[in-house]
Amino acid sequence: MKKNIEALLSCMGSTLEHKANEYSPLALAYIGDAVYEVFIRTYVLSKGNAPVNKFHRASRELVRASTQAKLYHIIDTALNEEEKDVLRRGRNAKSISTPKNGDIKEYRHATGFEALIGYLYLQGNIERISQLIDFGIKGLDA
């Protein structure tokens, strides 16, 4: 299934005209949110067949800002300096919108996490995204 994700995500990589570090943290979070959603839906689906509403509930748990904020803290220890910088830039980015549910601190950490996923995606580093998400999900279960 990992090869399917890599094929899907890499098919658009050649059309981008800018390098990953040229995008704003919020632009990185924008694409990172979508990429993370694909990874999570694939992860949930890989657990076996089930009714769609069970897939949705499981996915919703993992994509909410509070869970992404937890992942932010879990993966922080596994990041290199460049990745930590992207994480911080995303966390510190000032967004016009505010969270409907949850607090602003969780929302900012979730934005940092999404920015890192977006950054890695734009670099074409799908394997690293997979490593970090796997590491984070295992950390959630611990």
Number of domains: 1
Q: Which residue ranges are poorly predicted, with pLDDT under 50 across at least 5 consecutive positions?
A: none
Multimerization state: single chain
Give the tally of β-strands. 0
Number of helices: 7
- Report strand %: under 5%
CATH architecture: Orthogonal Bundle
Mean pLDDT: 87
Going by helix content, strand content and strand pairing, the class is mainly alpha
- Might you state the CATH topology name? Ribonuclease iii, N-terminal Endonuclease Domain, Chain A
User: Which word captures the global form?
Assistant: globular
Query: Strand count, sense and closure of the main sheet?
Result: none
Radius of gyration: 15 Å
Spell out the helices and strands N to C: HHHHHHH
Q: What's the N-to-C terminus distance? A: 24 Å
CATH class: Mainly Alpha
- Percent helix, as a range, is over 70%
**CATH homologous group name:** Ribonuclease III domain
Give a concise summary.
The protein has 142 residues and is an all-alpha fold.
Pick out its properties.
single chain; 142 residues; mainly alpha; Ribonuclease iii, N-terminal Endonuclease Domain, Chain A; 7 helices; 70% helix; globular
Explain what the structure shows.
This protein is an all-alpha fold and 142 residues long. It has 7 helices and no strands. Helix 2 packs antiparallel against helix 3 (52-63). The protein is globular.
Topology:
Blueprint: H1 2-10, H2 25-45, H3 52-63, H4 65-75, H5 81-92, H6 104-122, H7 126-141
Helix pairs in contact: 2-3, 2-5, 2-6, 4-6, 4-7, 5-6
